[in-house]
Design brief:
mainly beta, Neuraminidase, eight-stranded mixed beta sheet, 2 helices, 22 strands
Amino acid sequence: MRFFLLILFSFFAVSCKNEAPVNRSVVNNNSAVNITKTVNQPAGKLPEYGYDIVNTYPHDPKAFTQGLVFYNNFFYEGTGGRQSDTFHSSLRKVEVQSGKVVQKVDMDGKYFGEGITIFNDKIYQITWQEKKAFVYDVNDFKILKEFSYFGEGWGITHDAANLIMSDGTQVLRFINPENFQVVRTLVVTDEKGKEIDEINELEYVKGEIWANIWQEGWIARIDPQTGKLVGRIDLEDLAERQMAEDRNADVLNGIAYDEASDRLFVTGKKWRKIFEIKVKPKQ
């Protein structure tokens, strides 16, 4: 009987060893964005990330941030607001260290400005409900073109070939930058296959689409081929602190990536600071 139990115990020990989920990650700890390659991730388990604050920079607390870009050592920011609001729509160029606005163009008061991106030395700025996109010269902010589109405009970024735009739904549009025609669409889903809507500000980071979700304190990392989430970055406590310290501060919104120096920046609507952060796997 003892011999039989010993054999039975050994069998279960080997089985458990062979079937235990493996969750090994290959992480570059020197990278600000930590693109983690996970091996044999347990089914239904999505990688989650935290952050460390590397630096803080001043930010205009009146800027209702709708889009943020790092380009040639400056921040470029698109802000929202209509004529009747206490905050207004604009496109601005901002010194990183001082937060000083060194160049700015105000939009017509009938437009509510939304996301921006810079592609081939042109700035693309979309509008919320006005179905209008503006293309500016990156140097003098002169309008080069205007495009119309259907639906709402929320966030915008680009990959190597196309613009990528969100409209507040679960769908991302890949858009030809020359004529603003839709090339393809992508439905974003979580690890359970549930569609994720209210996708807001966008940034393209090392082959992934990173997105703010309206009124949420986390960033979604999206596979641009499948639309599936490949990770979540939890910034809930950072957002809550900003809103607790300043009653005028609003939700997390604004992601910018400095590809040359591998730096990541985040902010929110009417926040007093822009944060340079380093993403790290949650313990």
